[in-house]
Amino acid sequence: MENFSLILAIVVVTALAFDFTNGFHDTANAMATTISTGAMKPKVAVAMSAVLNLVGAFLSIEVANTISKGLVDESGIQPEVIFAALVGAILWNLVTWLVGLPSSSSHALMGGLIGATIASAGLGAVHGDVLVTKVLIPAVAAPLVAGVAAMFATRLTYKLGQHTSEKASGKGYRAGQIASAGLVSLAHGTNDAQKTMGIITLALVAGGTLAPDSDPPVWVIVSAGIAIALGTYLGGWRIIRTMGKGLTDLQPQQGFAAQTSAATVILASSHLGFSLSTTHSVSGAVMGAGLGRKGGVVRWSTATRMFVAWGLTLPAAALVAALAEWVTAFGTWGTAAVAVFLVGSSAAIWVVSRREVVDHTNVNDAATDEPAGVVTTAMAAVAPPPAGAAAEDLAATIPAPAAATEATANPSAPTPAV
Which residues contact 382 (CB under 8 A, 6 or more apart)? Predict the structure, then answer.
């Protein structure tokens, strides 16, 4: 650990803090659908997710190597640059968590690293080919692939179970959801924990502690895995509510299809070293599952807000990181000022979040009171009723005539003359 300077220690601690925010920000990716359909109790779900995130952190280092060796030029990076990148990523994570938007922690980190690197060493220090092939293309492809796969998987599950009782199929798919949620958690640890491993490894190389092109040391893998697991256990309840209830109303069959599709995409991408967003993959799968069921709809107003947040993630984190890098360039007092700003801003966001607490006791409450909208109403109107719907339930949807309603409400009232 020679040459382990104070600034390097600050960078490592800040990176683990980012990993912690990544955990509670992205818990929804694995557990939102499982919690919203009632397959698992909220606290049990996040505990299981935390354990599997920790296990997943040890399965691969391909994504870590993409970040530490491929995205930016190691020779032009100083630890202060990485510190500034982490500031941009953490603040974006906290802001989007506060408003309950499932944005990408991965892209926040990528944006922060790119912005700080450009501010420090110029545009040439960013490897554009790696950015396009392993970050931007997966960002677009992952939600589309996961969404289409989930839509067809949902239709298949309903077709296969059309002769099975709703109670029996629901029970079976809830069990399947638990298994698929575990797979997503494992995939999340494999993909997202590695990003922090990569950023710490890059800092160690920049600080002279590791040789260039080194793999993450064991202590980096362990600490990153523990940090993301602790954050996952804390539970990002605000984003879980949006993902589980705000995008669409899911049944167990849909939840199983969405989680299985997302996990497949994430694990395949991790194996290839693609630094994709688990948030994008799971969100796309949830929307696909919503469209895969007859009568199922997606709340496009919520989805639109998510898409806007996705588009802003890279540039917003890059801008904050570039400003932080500009301040740290003034020396020790500049770095201290940025650190104070990060702590103060984080504390302020937490205080604001206490005004309306969302936790495991109310996570399944309605995420929004907004009207369904024209498209949703039209689709629901032409959708056939669920199989086996009781006649009285259908009759209840037909409003009673005003006179009959008044007579029922006031039996003593005289009958109007004809």
Answer: none
Beta-ladder partners of 72: 126
147 in a structural domain: yes
Report the alpha-carbon distance of residue 275 to residue 282 in Å, rounded.
15
Domain-located, residue 206: yes
CB 149 within 8 A of CB 18: no
Type of residue at 333: W
Q: 25-54: b or e for each residue (b if 16 or more CB lie within 10 Å)?
A: bbbbbbbbbbbbbebbebeebbbbbbbbbb
Q: Supply the range of the domain harboring residue 249.
A: 6-386
What local confidence, expressed as pLDDT, does residue 234 receive?
Answer: 78
Number of domains in the chain: 1
Output b/e per residue, 380-412; b: 16+ Cβ within 10 A. Answer: eeeeeeeeeeeeeeeeeeeeeeeeeeebeeeee
Eight-state DSSP code of residue 398: S
Mean pLDDT (the chain) is 78
Distance CA 17, CA 105 (A): 12
Among the residue ranges 89-93, 240-244, 397-401, the one predicted with the least confidence is: 397-401
Gap between the Cα atoms of 280 and 302, Å rounded: 14
Assess if residue 404 is contained within a domain: no
| Rounded average pLDDT over 391-414 | 47
In terms of C-beta density within 10 A (0-12 exposed, 13-18 middle, 19 or more buried), how is residue 170 classed? Answer: middle
- d(CA 104, CA 277) in angstroms, rounded, equals 6
Radius of gyration of the chain (CA): 24
DSSP 339-359: HHHHHHHHHHHHHHHTTS---
Nearest CA to 85 out of 22, 18, 26, 134 is that of 18
Distance CA 157, CA 253 (A): 6
Q: Is residue 403 included in any domain, yes or no?
A: no
**Pure H helices in 37-165:** 42-56, 62-65, 79-98, 105-121, 128-131, 137-160
Structural contact between residues 275 and 63, judged by C-beta atoms closer than 8 angstroms: yes
Does residue 71 contact residue 209 with C-beta atoms inside 8 Å?
Answer: no
Whether 377 has a pLDDT exceeding 70, the answer reads: no
| Lowest-confidence segment of 9-13, 165-169, 264-268 by average pLDDT | 165-169
Q: Evaluate if residue 241 carries a pLDDT over 70.
A: yes
Residues in the chain: 418
Gap between the Cα atoms of 304 and 72, Å rounded: 31
Return the DSSP state at 71: S
